Amino acid sequence: MNRISLIAGNWKMYKNITQAIELVSALKRELFFIETQRFEIVVCPPFTALSEVAELLYESNIELGAQNVHWEKEGAFTGEVSILMLKDLGCKYVIVGHSERRTYFGETDEIINKKLKAVLDEGLSPILCVGESLKQREEGLTFKILEEQIYKDLESINFQKVANLVIAYEPVWAIGTGRTATPQIAQEAQAYIRGLLNRIYSEEISQKIRILYGGSVKPENIKELIKQPDIDGALVGGASLDLDSFSSIIKYAYEVKK
Ligand code: PGA
Question: Which of 36, 60, 65, 193 has the most C-beta neighbours closer than 10 Å?
Fold first, then answer.
């Protein structure tokens, strides 16, 4: 199955508007040769920079993503941003259920499920993050946790809606720690996730859904990661904030996938 590779940069709570414009302008110059039919690039700036970045990315080979969304279309929800607002800006992707949101902002699988439905209903692509903590891995609970998260997060999302879904396997112990999962560990977990998708939906659908790896991805480790059969790309945090490291990650991955 030929899935289009995808590398997404999650900027988290970094970069003001000027810095965002600077980075995206430089990325456009560095990565102009990447062909979108084979390889997708996504940047997910903070909400405050989405509008300016959207303008810069118009008709380019880089897509726009957001880092979070509320599940209602509109309403009295102070401080929240809806999927219609993100769509209006030209966002194509939305990160949903990142472990930082689960841990620091109390996002439960029920909330994540609502967000996924809202994003899929509007025809955008959620990047659903799942992954075990260090303690859970050490206790041998990795597969159990992945199964619980996937089943709860995707509950009552039917096969017609799920086509746009992207999953990111992000072991919590690898996020921002410099401790990347080995390609074998990541492959094993991601093959397991694909197996779950096969069980929930079908072989055909499980083969279509892209599964990214996330957690301390760097230019030094992307090649071995992306060679694995069930790793279709990466969700990059820290290394996506820097022009050289993010564009190197993309160039190396593109080279492997050519
Ligand atoms: P990291 O973050 O690349 O800085 O480990 C990944 C993520 O949180 O998506």
Answer: 65
Structural domains counted in the chain: 1
Give residue for tokens 């996002």. Answer: 107
Residue 258: pLDDT band with limits 50, 70, 90: confident
Is 110 labeled as catalytic in the residue annotation?
Answer: no
Q: Which residue is catalytic, options 40, 70, 98, 107?
A: 98
Residue with CA at minimum distance from ligand 1 atom 9: 237
User: What residues make up the domain containing 36?
Assistant: 5-257
Cα separation, 3 vs 170, whole angstroms: 20
Q: Ligand 1 atom closest to Cα of 129?
A: 9
Q: Provide the CATH number for the domain around residue 223.
A: 3.20.20.70
Q: Give the 3-state DSSP-derived string for the chain, with helices as H, strands as E and coil as C.
A: CCCCEEEEEECCCCCCHHHHHHHHHHHHHHCCCCCCCCEEEEEECCHHHHHHHHHHHCCCCEEEEECCCECCCCCCCCCCCEHHHHHHHCCCEEEECCHHHHHHCCCCHHHHHHHHHHHHHCCCEEEEEECCCHHHHHCCCHHHHHHHHHHHHCCCCCCCCHHHCEEEECCHHHCCCCCCCCHHHHHHHHHHHHHHHHHHCCHHHHHHCEEEEECCCCCCCHHHHHCCCCCCEEEECHHHHCHHHHHHHHHHHHHHHC
Residue 1 has pLDDT above 70, yes or no: no
Whole-number Å distance between alpha carbons of 219 and 40:
17
